[in-house]
Each structure stands twice: as structure tokens, then as C-alpha cells.
Design brief:
Layout (H helix, E strand, L loop, with lengths): L1 H53 L4 H8 L1 H22 L4 H10 L9 H7 L1 H20 L9 H10 L5 H16 L4 H27 L2 E3 L5 E3 L4 H26 L6 H25 L1 H4 L3 H18 L7 H25 L3 H11 L1
Antiparallel strand pairs: 1-2
Helix pairs in contact: 1-10, 1-11, 1-13, 1-14, 3-4, 3-10, 3-11, 6-8, 6-9, 6-10, 6-13, 8-9, 9-10, 13-14
């Protein structure tokens, strides 16, 4: 199972490290390895959230996620998308941006690709931060049978019955952030509003078409059919935007390690392969249903990441802090899930007890 799911990730890792060693020597090899670990540590919670969405898609679209989705994640979100961001924010044509990226240069040198991407960070952080904040708010404002941090989740679920509360809270946060810590409030407001809008649009379209995938039997009971067609397509788009939101901090942080866009793309791409494979592994193993608090931990990690992204509009936050917070939430959620699982009565034991009592 491990080899089948992570096989391509292992192959790509070997090829990437070998290529880095041959073309760039030991230093390039070390940089690719460091960036891969950085991406995995920053996006571990992404895999858990992705798995909750991937479970709703049929086998065909799960394969699309593993093939085409990986190409989009590696080349689109971690190479082309940053180039597009610099082109838009710096008002440069794509050819100029590519040339600047190839020329390299320090992140502290005005006019370099790394400098321009860092300069665009407030807009990037506002978009990604608001997208992730909406995801977190929609989760904590929804009433659930199982609560992890019950002392806070249950009260939030009660007030979450107010219609569109997550949108109201997100917009309030955006206005406060733009007016208090942003040097360019208009840019932050527009980017943040786009993040909220994209979340509502893609998520809403996915829910709309997924609703048609419910089947009602003769007794009037409704069961969910795995999403296919348009519903799965919009869920796929949702996953890709979610991946972009998670990749922002990794791409920006990578320039503190190296200014070579190809090494960054390869290193972060290798990490993205493992996140994709881990997502599929969680789905196929049924890990989320077995360890019930994992999704909760991932969502709280997303809430923390959204907060950190908004803070980085003005203040620097080390990538190691972001990574440790995400891994920390997932780790605690896993341990508490394990404790819950061990304390639950085994089905066989329950059956035997019932038989003895009868």
C-alpha cells in the first residue's frame, strides 16, 4: 500500500536529488532536500483537509488529482503562479518577469524577482489568508456530532446558526487588518475580498452540483453518491485553490534559502508530491474516520495559518514557527484520537457482553 501510493513520490525524489547533484553539486542537492522538508512541514495539515474533500470524489477524479493535479501543483502553483503575481503587481510583461527570475538576485536588492515577489507579499497573504480563514470559520461555525475542543467548538457552533456569519466575521477581520497593519490598505482589501469571493464561488458551485449527486431511495432516505462530472470538477478546482493558499508561505519563504527559481520549483515540487500521496493514503486507509479528531486538528491549524498569513502583511514570521504550529495541531489531534479509539469499546466485546447478558 505504501509503495503503491508513494511510489511516484519516491521516484521523483530520487530523480530530483540526483539531478540537483549532477547539475548543481552538493549545495544544490542540500537546497532541494531542505525545500522539500520545508514544503512537507508547512503543508501537512493541507493533506488532511484535502483528504476530507477527496473522499467525496469518485475514483476517476481521485486519479486526476494525483496526475494532472500534481502537474498544476508543481509547475502551476509553485513556478508559474508566482511569476504571474509579480507580473500583475509590478506591472511587467511576462517576458520581463521570466528574465528577472532567470537573472536571480537577492531578496534585498530592489528590482530583482525575489524582491518583487516579496513586495507583492501583502496582496498574496491577504488573498490566501482570507481564503483559509473562510474555510476555518465555515468548519467551526457548523454543528457537529463530535467535538474536539468542545469548550470552544460547541459555543461557536451555536452562534454559527446565524446565516452567513463566517462571511461577516471574515469581512470584519479583513477591514481591521487593512486599516491597522497594512501599508497599502486598498491592495489588501481588494486581494482579501477576492480570496473570500473565490472561496464562496468555487465552494458554492461544488456544493450546488454535488447536491444533484444525492440519491433518494424508496423509503425517502438520501445517500451521497461519489461526486463526478461537474461536481467533481469544481471540487477539484477548490482543491487547487486551497493548495495555492497553502503554497504561498512556502514560495515566499523559499527565497530566504535560495533565489534560484528552478531549485525552488524542484524542492517545493518534491514536497508537493508527498502531500498529494499522503492525501490519497489517508483516503484509501480510511484514516479520517478511524482517527476522528484529525480533521479538527487540521482545521485549527488552518485557522492558525490564516492568522499568521495576515500577520505577515506587516511582520515577519519564521517558516519554522508556521510549520511547527501546523504539525503540532495535527500531532495533538492524532494523539487524542488514538486515546479516544482505545477507550471506545470494541464491537466484538460489545456483542459478547450482550450475548452473556441475554
Amino acid at each position: 500500500m505504501i509503495l503503491k501510493t508513494f511510489g511516484w513520490a519516491f521516484v521523483v525524489t530520487i530523480l530530483a536529488l540526483a539531478g540537483a547533484l549532477i547539475l548543481g553539486g552538493p549545495s544544490a542537492l542540500a537546497l532541494v532536500a531542505i525545500l522539500s522538508i520545508l514544503e512537507i512541514s508547512l503543508s501537512f495539515d493541507n493533506a488532511v483537509v484535502n483528504a476530507t474533500i477527496l473522499e467525496r470524489m469518485n475514483a476517476f477524479w481521485q486519479k486526476i488529482f494525483l496526475t494532472i493535479g500534481i502537474l498544476i501543483a508543481v509547475f502551476g502553483m509553485r513556478l508559474i503562479f508566482p511569476l504571474a503575481i509579480v507580473s500583475i503587481t509590478a506591472h511587467l510583461n511576462p517576458v520581463e518577469v521570466v528574465q528577472k527570475a532567470l537573472d536571480g538576485g537577492s531578496i534585498d536588492t530592489p528590482g530583482t524577482y525575489a524582491y518583487l515577489l516579496h513586495d507583492a507579499h501583502p496582496a498574496i497573504a491577504a488573498f490566501g489568508g482570507m481564503f483559509l480563514l473562510m474555510l476555518f470559520l465555515d468548519f467551526v461555525f457548523e454543528e457537529r456530532e463530535i467535538a474536539w475542543l468542545a469548550w470552544v467548538e460547541r459555543p461557536l457552533a451555536k452562534i454559527g446558526k446565524l446565516d452567513q456569519l463566517s462571511v461577516v466575521v471574515a469581512l470584519t477581520v479583513l477591514v481591521v487588518v487593512a486599516q491597522t497593519i497594512a501599508e497599502k490598505p486598498d491592495t489588501v482589501m481588494v486581494s482579501g475580498a477576492l480570496g473570500i469571493g473565490i472561496y464562496l464561488l468555487v465552494g458554492g458551485l461544488g456544493d450546488l452540483f454535488e447536491e444533484a449527486g444525492h440519491h433518494e431511495d424508496e423509503d425517502g432516505n438520501r445517500t451521497l453518491v461519489k461526486a463526478a462530472g461537474k461536481a467533481a470538477f469544481f471540487l477539484f478546482l477548490y482543491l487547487e485553490v486551497l493548495d495555492a493558499s497553502f503554497s504561498f508561505d512556502g514560495v515566499i519563504g523559499a527565497f530566504a534559502i535560495t533565489q534560484d527559481i528552478f531549485i525552488i520549483a524542484v524542492g517545493l515540487g518534491v514536497g508537493a508530491m508527498y502531500i498529494r500521496s499522503l492525501t490519497v493514503y489517508l483516503v484509501r486507509q480510511g484514516t479520517l474516520s478511524e482517527y476522528v479528531y484529525l480533521e479538527h486538528g487540521a482545521m485549527w491549524a488552518i485557522g492558525a495559518l490564516a492568522t499568521i498569513l495576515l500577520i505577515t502583511i506587516k511582520h515577519e514570521v519564521p517558516e519554522v514557527v508556521t510549520g511547527l504550529i501546523g504539525v503540532g495541531f495535527i500531532g495533538v489531534a492524532f494523539l487524542t484520537s488514538l486515546i479516544r479509539k482505545r477507550n471506545e469499546p470494541d464491537d466484538n466485546d460489545v456483542s459478547e457482553n450482550e450475548l452473556v447478558n441475554s
